[in-house]
Specification:
It is built from 5 helices and 7 strands; from the N terminus they run H-E-H-E-H-H-E-E-E-E-H-E. The N terminus is likely disordered. The longest helix is centred in the first third of the chain and has 15 residues. The strands form 2 sheets. Strands 3-2-1-7 form a 4-stranded parallel sheet. Helix content is about 35%, strand content about 15%. Helix 3 crosses helix 4. It is α/β, with parallel strands linked by helices. The radius of gyration is 15 Å and the shape is globular.
């Protein structure tokens, strides 16, 4: 609990530095699984960010909100409508949202190895655990185009 609170405070302080002005090429990488901890931060930054990258377990709630099958991936069912609202808001505020394009999937977290999907959809019986090679390539290319001082990364 204490670590979660400290992480949340750090996230709000980091994001809060960008909320007072147009941030230009600012990116927010969201990753941890409890999406409700970051929804307010994301909503605050939409319109100030050019690009919002959502990764980790949080991404599967957003993929499902877009109607993309996510198999047995960790999601927050009670946040799907909120994720839809944020995706619509991002579009209207001209913030591009990037979600995984080729997740690494496996039957379970204890599986010895995963398989990279050919697309973003995850079949029943599998869960998403990581990004694939194409997503990694896209993100590296994206990060190479921005100055480090213009990037915000949430833990």
């Amino acid at each position: 609990p204490a670590a979660k609170t400290a992480r949340r405070q750090k996230n709000h302080l980091t994001a809060g530095q960008a909320t007072g002005k147009k941030a230009g090429n600012v990116f927010l990488c969201s990753g941890w699984c409890w999406a409700n901890d970051q929804f307010g931060v994301i909503d605050n930054l939409l319109g100030r960010l050019d690009v919002l990258i959502i990764g980790g377990a949080m991404a599967y709630t957003f993929l499902l909100a877009r109607g993309i099958p996510v198999g047995g991936s960790l999601i927050e069912a009670h946040k799907i409508e909120r994720a839809r609202d944020l995706l619509r808001s991002a579009e209207s505020r001209k913030t591009k949202v990037i979600l995984p394009v080729d997740p690494v999937v496996a039957p379970g977290i204890d599986s010895e190895e995963g398989t990279i999907t050919e697309g973003v959809e995850i079949d029943d019986g599998f869960s998403g655990f990581d990004i694939g090679l194409e997503a990694e390539k896209q993100l590296r290319k994206l990060f190479d185009t921005i100055p480090r001082r213009n990037a915000i990364r949430s833990p």
